[in-house]
């Protein structure tokens, strides 16, 4: 059985229950706030919270960030099944997960991402689901970088024709001509610096803005009761 599609909480190996505490805080945020956009996933967007790039691009769009650093596809799936998207009605959910599933094949990770899409669609039938591509990782070319590129291809193909599900490429411009990634763009060769984020996240921002503006226009054109 593919572990990437089996909803699983993160084991409390440290003994402080931090992961479950964060999950409960996100559930509370859903009850108390009214976001237009929810980011849910792993380290890539978690590390951007409250950065200059986040505040410039995404905070003005009324976003909540439900990303947790080490989450894999099965962990996000468990969170969604256990209240992470309840009591809330965003126009868009941005899902970024899969780069931490290092021991699974590209096909298994892609299936895990699609399982999350299906669960989001079940919970929030009217929301758009946006899937930013997984980023290259590692200073030098390596098998995980190749696998992430393969996952991106699979997910793009598997989501073709899906209503209100769209992939967006954010993986360009990080790998230099010699095949290396600079620490100026990815401080640990996996997560983005502010410089790296500014370099690649504009296409995502533009897509979110376009969808939100279209929704606003539709609402304005709907005859009042």
Automatic annotation (TrEMBL):
Ranges for domain SGNH hydrolase-type esterase: 39-188
Pfam families for the chain: Lipase_GDSL_2 (PF13472)
InterPro entries the record matches: SGNH_hydro, SGNH_hydro_sf
Record's keyword terms, sorted: Hydrolase
One GO molecular-function entry: hydrolase activity
Keyword Hydrolase: yes
UniProt record similarity statement: Belongs to the 'GDSL' lipolytic enzyme family. Platelet-activating factor acetylhydrolase IB beta/gamma subunits subfamily.
Annotated protein name in UniProt: Blast:Platelet-activating factor acetylhydrolase IB subunit beta homolog
Organism: Drosophila guanche (Fruit fly)
